């Protein structure tokens, strides 16, 4: 058989396949080392992600995620908050040397005390640092804020949400498909390295 696609491996890990498909893919995994390695990476990501998300959902109910002050990081000027989730917050800013715009992601105050969150955050930075794709922002630095929270800095990509960009630019159906194909190529690049973006 041909190698299963990543969605099939994810469904296998989540026990969502029928018996025939499950047996067929299991047989293939015993013969294909690359697919077996990818499956174990997918399975590990899912288990870790589900446990962490459950923990942060519980924590978010008890401790709403708020950071009253901008982080202080040596060598950076921190600007406005760009977004936040249950575990992390992202700021726009500028690295001072060399001078360039950056996006700085750091653990929220509530997540910073969790060893579990720390491990996931560090793994995210390490995985992103290995990515080499024109449509995936590169990690350029990592460390600790002055108050001890972990952060990593990435290229700052200026732009609009995809749907707004397509509307504002009056993209033709063909142009939209071409843009979508480029996005899929970046996602595929991540999938080949066992990375699943659960927000897509």
List the SSEs and their pairings.
Blueprint: H1 6-13, H2 19-31, H3 33-62, E1 76-84, E2 88-96, E3 99-107, H4 115-130, E4 139-144, E5 150-155, H5 162-168, H6 173-191
Antiparallel strand pairs: 1-2, 2-3, 3-5, 4-5
Helix pairs in contact: 1-3, 2-3
Protein architecture, described:
This protein has 6 helices and 5 strands, in the order αααβββαββαα. The protein is of the alpha+beta class and 200 residues long. The protein has 3 domains: 6-62; 76-158, Phosphorylase Kinase, domain 1; 160-200, no CATH class. The chain has a 5-stranded antiparallel β-sheet with strand order 1-2-3-5-4, covered by helices on one side. The longest helix is centred in the N-terminal third of the chain and has 30 residues, at 33-62. The two termini are 28 Å apart. The mean pLDDT is 83.
Mean pLDDT: 83
Q: Regarding CATH, which class of the largest domain? A: Alpha Beta
Please, how many domains?
A: 3
What are the secondary-structure elements, in order, as H or E?
HHHEEEHEEHH
């Amino acid at each position: 058989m041909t190698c299963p696609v990543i969605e099939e491996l994810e469904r296998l890990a989540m026990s969502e396949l029928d018996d025939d498909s499950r047996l067929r893919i299991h047989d293939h995994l015993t013969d294909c080392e690359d697919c077996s390695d990818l499956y174990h990476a997918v399975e590990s990501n899912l288990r870790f992600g589900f446990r962490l998300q459950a923990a942060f959902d519980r924590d978010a109910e008890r401790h709403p995620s708020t950071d009253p002050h901008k982080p202080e990081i040596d060598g950076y000027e921190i600007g406005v908050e760009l977004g936040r989730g249950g575990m992390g917050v992202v700021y726009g800013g500028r690295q001072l040397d060399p001078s360039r715009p950056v996006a700085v992601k750091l653990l929220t105050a509530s997540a910073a005390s969790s060893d579990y969150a720390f491990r996931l955050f560090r793994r995210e930075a390490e995985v992103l640092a290995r990515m080499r794709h024109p449509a995936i922002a590169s990690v350029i630095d990592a460390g600790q804020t002055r108050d001890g929270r972990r952060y990593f800095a990435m290229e700052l990509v200026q732009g609009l949400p995809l749907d707004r960009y397509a509307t504002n630019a009056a993209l033709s159906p063909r142009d939209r498909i071409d843009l979508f194909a480029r996005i899929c190529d970046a996602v595929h690049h991540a999938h080949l390295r066992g990375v699943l973006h659960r927000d897509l």
